[in-house]
Amino acid sequence: xxxxxxxxxxxxxxxxxxxxxxxxxxxxxxxxxxxxxxxxxxxxxxxxxxxxxxxxxxxxxxxxxxxxxxxxxxxxxxxxxxxxxxxxxxxxxxxxxxxxxxxxxxxxxxxxxxxxxxxxxxxxxxxxxxxxxxxxxxxxxxxxxxxxxxxxxxxxxxxxxxxxxxxxxxxxxxxxxxxxxxxxxxxxxxxxxxxxxxxxxxxxxxxxxxxxxxxxxxxxxxxxxxxxxxxxxxxxxxxxxxxx
Length: 244
Hints:
Elements: H1 6-13, E1 15-20, H2 25-37, E2 43-46, H3 52-58, H4 62-66, E3 69-71, H5 74-77, E4 83-87, E5 97-99, H6 100-110, E6 116-120, H7 129-133, E7 137-140, H8 152-169, H9 181-196, H10 201-218, H11 222-238
Parallel strand pairs: 1-2, 1-6, 2-3, 4-6, 4-7, 5-7
């Protein structure tokens, strides 16, 4: 049985499970039950197919379903989150995708002090590229390559169970504060302004795209983003350009 000390319970309380356009009413109820099984308490629903069947399936987790936050867009659902982790089963040309085992310590470390979201897409298609782009990092759940798509409620169950079990066994919590998306965007906004003056526009655009992929792949911390900003600004000032 899991009994979490206050610091670990706070981490679970800081994690929001976000379902984007869930199509199967029963799945929504099963997800609510799964969250309660694994000591999670925050559920957000974006345009859900919520029906009486959802509440019937939720059973004693009905209260969690009734208290779920409901939104019309993913952007609204993520407005209060410091960091968002998206899930996918497909390769994404523009994104570096982590194995869940690799991303698990980051989820726990970010949720110590900040609200984070774990985002799952609709059963038939998953998350769109636009929805993926709203998130800060992407991971997949290992599976049979010939049958890689998990049922939505099962995927939530695996994620929540593994987080709870990891917390249960950890003797010392990981400490790493990643930079928020807005901090990274400020950095790239300045880089974009600088690169726009480049003679070869196509080369400049390719360079910016590569730098974005590098930033996503390395999970920059707040201190690292601050350091890069200062280095770029100092370099710009050396040659007579102004600060952003």
